[in-house]
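Hi R.,

Here's the chain you asked about this morning:
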Amino acid sequence: MHRLVLIRHGESEWNKANLFTGWTDVDLSEKGLQEAAEAGAALKEAGFNFEYAYTSFLKRAIKTLNIVLENMDQLWIPVEKTWRLNEKHYGALQGFNKAEMTEKYGPEKIKMWRRSYDIRPESLADDDERNPALDPRYKNINDPMARPHTEALCDTIARIVPYWENVIRPRVAESNDIIIAAHGNSLRGIIKVLKNISDEDIIGLNLPTGIPYVFEFDDNMQLQKDYFLADEETVKKLMDAVANQGNK
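And the predicted structure, written out as tokens:
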């Protein structure tokens, strides 16, 4: 059996403030730090022994992974960071309050920008300080997808799927336990592939922060089952909270 654990980073300071975050490098809140520690404890109790880990270029995911591994006494394992696991880029919305933007533009437009599969929020200008091309993490990467001015979910998935197929999936196939600490939308791209979810249905999947999501595969990499390491009522409550973040 091969096991893959996906974990959305713990609550960030901007999650707490209900701001559009995207590629902005925001730290974890106190609650987020606790969520990561609890996730590590749960994974340790469940008997996971990770051989390799993946995360994004953003500190909220990196710190979540480090705290998880520290609580498992597994900080020594190899970790690969990639911009392809970054959150969806929210363009000009980044840094603005979700509820206030809903009041300004209306709930339907905000829902479209947040949840549609192929409609992008308004784009950043080239000279906007939020432009990834001005960030040293991305300016020397020879791929224009590493410097988006805005993204729809389809764009996020387009940069994730090749990395899953060519890098992570082969690693899972030769390992027992692998973990990915990333973001709600980048992880949705992987889940879409694993569970063969349609373009229409994937927009309704809301991942809670800090809850490990486990996928188990047979030796042919056929998915056998998937489950959260938390009770169903807790997971549903947290998912509903994510879905309602745009409400005033």
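The radius of gyration is 17 Å.

Let me know if you need anything else.
M.
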